[in-house]
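// run 5 | inverse folding | seed 20
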């Protein structure tokens, strides 16, 4: 990498001092850890070096590859919105219980249809579990279906705060 035309090249004697300084700093980490920033600055100035040149030389010795981002969009989110996003859709519990109750009701319905139950009391209990399971399961499924888009709608409303043309 060539220096810009306005800057003067680093003189060889300064480079020699810089190499000496960098060698002392690089090969003895215990020296670096025991020195304060003021001591490092003093040592650099005692060697007659410009701290900016030292900084530039150190930065040029490390290769940094950076992929630039053309632009970045930042959305502001309220505490309530963040809490809703963190918890997820609150209606998913309705779906979980609906699946559970519909599975139980289906199992009891299959048992009612495939076996002969001798006791009237057992038959009534199986029938009640089947009917109540289907009714509550379907109600919970309807509640889940009506509220399933709440998180998606919240995200859409946050995104709509910034006009599309920007």
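// decoded
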């Amino acid at each position: 990498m060539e220096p810009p035309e306005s800057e003067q090249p680093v003189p060889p004697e300064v480079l020699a001092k810089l190499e000496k300084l960098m060698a002392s700093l690089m090969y003895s980490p215990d020296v670096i850890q025991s020195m304060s920033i003021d001591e490092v600055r003093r040592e650099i100035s005692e060697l007659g070096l410009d701290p900016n040149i030292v900084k530039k030389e150190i930065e040029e010795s490390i290769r940094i590859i950076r992929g630039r981002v053309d632009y970045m969009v930042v959305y502001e989110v309220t505490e309530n919105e963040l809490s809703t996003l963190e918890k997820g859709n609150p209606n998913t519990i309705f779906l979980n219980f609906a699946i559970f109750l519909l599975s139980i009701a289906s199992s009891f319905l299959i048992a009612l249809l495939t076996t002969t139950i001798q006791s009237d009391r057992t038959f009534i209990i199986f029938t009640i579990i089947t009917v109540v399971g289907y009714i509550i399961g379907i109600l919970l499924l309807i509640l889940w279906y009506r509220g399933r888009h709440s998180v998606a709608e919240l995200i859409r409303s946050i995104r709509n705060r910034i006009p599309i043309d920007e």
